[in-house]
Amino acid sequence: MFRSVYLYTQSSNHKPWLPHPAPAAGMLKLLPEEHVRSLFAYDGIWLFPKNQCKCEASGHQGSYNFEDAYGQSDLPAVKVRRQAEFEHFQRREGLPRPPPLLAQPNLPFGYPVHGVEVMPLHTVPIPGLQFEGPDAPIYEVTLTASLGTLNTLADIPDSVVQGRGQKQLNISTSNRKLLNFILQHVTYTSTEYQRCRVDVVSLESKSSVAKFPVTIRLPVMPKLYDPGPERKLRDLVTIATKTFLRPHKLMTMLQSIRVYPDLTVIVADDSKEPLKINDSHVEYYTMPYGKGWFAGRNLAISQVTTKYVLWVDDDFLFNDKTKIEVLVDVLELDVVGGSVLGNVFQFKLFLEHSENGDCLHRRSGSFWPLDGFPSCVVTSGVVNFFLAHTERLQRVGFDPRLQRVAHSEFFIDGLGSLLVGSCSNVIVGHQPRSPVADPELAALEKSYNVYRTNTKAQIQFKLALHYFKNHLQCAT
Amino acid sequence: MFRSVYLYTQSSNHKPWLPHPAPAAGMLKLLPEEHVRSLFAYDGIWLFPKNQCKCEASGHQGSYNFEDAYGQSDLPAVKVRRQAEFEHFQRREGLPRPPPLLAQPNLPFGYPVHGVEVMPLHTVPIPGLQFEGPDAPIYEVTLTASLGTLNTLADIPDSVVQGRGQKQLNISTSNRKLLNFILQHVTYTSTEYQRCRVDVVSLESKSSVAKFPVTIRLPVMPKLYDPGPERKLRDLVTIATKTFLRPHKLMTMLQSIRVYPDLTVIVADDSKEPLKINDSHVEYYTMPYGKGWFAGRNLAISQVTTKYVLWVDDDFLFNDKTKIEVLVDVLELDVVGGSVLGNVFQFKLFLEHSENGDCLHRRSGSFWPLDGFPSCVVTSGVVNFFLAHTERLQRVGFDPRLQRVAHSEFFIDGLGSLLVGSCSNVIVGHQPRSPVADPELAALEKSYNVYRTNTKAQIQFKLALHYFKNHLQCAT
């Protein structure tokens, strides 16, 4: 009996999976679990399939169990609702994916293993189909599809090929070369309209069956931006920010931006009173009072019409080290953070799957240096001073449910969608937290600080949101 | 010589592709091109791979060549810029995809054809690997990867397995069962951090080579919404609209919405003067004057915190046939349009690929009925009265570059990302275009009508945008 406790094929009642019995007991054994753990761990996290993932506090790494954010009496109903929403989401995304399609050895067929794609309702030739089995008086080969129909471009009578334009194509001939000619020119026509589906097409003769995937999908429509004939920074980059009850800081920040005299700045403001801003390159938006931090961020980025957007907080300060052009060069990534007053805050995110919610692990630092950019590294999350591809940033977005303090939630939402980097050589300043003389401004700041406090209720709200929205179980 | 002019393997100087010479000339021939065209046409459009696509006007179908939107002197530079932006986009999306991976017949291996996926930096077992070739004194099998490293869970000395944790794993043994035990437990560890890449892993022995794909990607992070314990419509649906210089129409529309007393309504307004709206469930946003139609639409949807969003225009009129709940049921699709005063405007979109830009074909009507919903059909574009999955709608977005008249551009941007349906049994009313008595409102309406006119300059702008942004060549 072999212990394969950690393999993903384990049955649900945790009986070990038994491979074929060993001829010479003792020869065929697997590495002990601790060894496997050490082989496949990264930053101390075991990144290997398992039934259950766990979040264990260790050293100065805390851990949160997101269920704890709910009251005991609410939790059962929440679990049911989350499961229902998750299943709806999975259905629409075509998840979970079916188990891998395995090819048997010694199949007498040539066929395309990977890479046949067709747009919905379109037709493509299927490359690589051939039969190289033993000679026989009659060759009978059948092709079967589910989400489309089959045909062949070969000009052949119905006595040889039957089922043209149907889900099953039957070829029957004594002429081997004719058989291969027909196979060479088989076509697949997609008959479903879906975002992304995989049809498994089978090719069989006698008892040999080859199966291969045909991917049905429309390619994502490009959304390109014209940089203009002179490639001016103004046509490439828009600056975006959100402000709340800090008009003095905002104005100071806006003035400091004018080392770049004509860059458009988008300002989302959910303060009580609207501001009058005398700058023809500032686009100003007002929101319901206190609508929120991420709502304002999402608003601001929704208005950008250039390829790149530079996010800044309303209390930053541009200086001569704030070279936006340097960040533009690094945009093979999706988001590139800079440094705020010398602080290159970075963190990595790791995800482990599990049936009742994923485990998320956050570690400070970066994965590795970025090729070709000595001051930059690849990571998962950065500071609030970053340049981003507008299109990719908008696709992830800032969740307007996050009204007060929030930061890493954006990078968690972006996990899998955003490639993030961090460069220490582009630096923005930060206005000091000195108290204001003006009594009106001081009153606003006092109000601001109340909203800005990360209260217990807010922390609980955010943990509950991670539990439900991101289908997470826990985090370290 | 066989004419295969229409096959995608045609060389660039348009010489026909020659398959193997025919043994019996006259037996191996392909269907004539006209026959193939009729087999694979949909709505009169030939949906088959070709080098060049064309947009031909026919009947009452016009055609546009998007290059014509540019001045003759500008066009060469625009072409260069578009090609550069397109290549940047392709690089970042991993396009164009490599040609299909073909399996040769009679490979002595079992292996996974499709479906092996691994998250970046994670490890997975590779299922299905086996060797069933002829007996031999020594079996030497090599596995090679490029974007990751290989290992095996088998507890085996280095004399048998070399290269553990490297890109190439060599197995050398005289024991066939041991070989297969090792293969059965091979693991793949991803060592790159990318959004989505496919590694081709090869498995060879003597002259036999099997190749199979391993997909490296992080799954998209779920963004679920809690419908709450009572599943109230208010917690499921937010209404969104944009208004400009039509306060009277907006107010009439808002009042009619109150058949639903507590649904949140988001209003984006880029008029000159802000409005005061006495409705605690209306969220009101102001924008720079005349910032634009799609900018306002993108703003409004960026603020939604519920699972679904209902888009309405500011001159609609809710009545007793406006049953939002009916649309909620149909949301296996992403966007479901209703009917405006009995008009179920629908259109289908077809895309043909081509090297110098795609051809887009638009036809009125629908693809087919929607299973289970007798009043609904599947299509590509609908009216401006629709319910949508907030998350999917935000991922496509409304392009803020479209300031004035625009409609189908949203559905074109959404091609491949949105599944669209249309239901005739949910009807909203439309306020009549009668002139206003009040002189102030009349002045606003006059202004509105100027902005609303689809001028020649605007049409040209939109055609140019299709050329550059969507990499289109022409449309019918």
From TrEMBL, chains A, B:
Entry-linked InterPro entries: Glyco_trans_2-like, Nucleotide-diphossugar_trans
One GO BP: UDP-N-acetylgalactosamine metabolic process
Every Glycosyltransferase 2-like domain range: 243-340
GO molecular function: acetylgalactosaminyltransferase activity
SUPFAM superfamilies (alphabetical): Nucleotide-diphospho-sugar transferases (SSF53448)
PANTHER family: BETA-1,4 N-ACETYLGALACTOSAMINYLTRANSFERASE 2 (PTHR15046:SF2), GLYCO_TRANS_2-LIKE DOMAIN-CONTAINING PROTEIN (PTHR15046)
Annotated protein name in UniProt: Beta-1,4-N-acetyl-galactosaminyltransferase 2 (SID blood group)
UniProt gene name: B4GALNT2
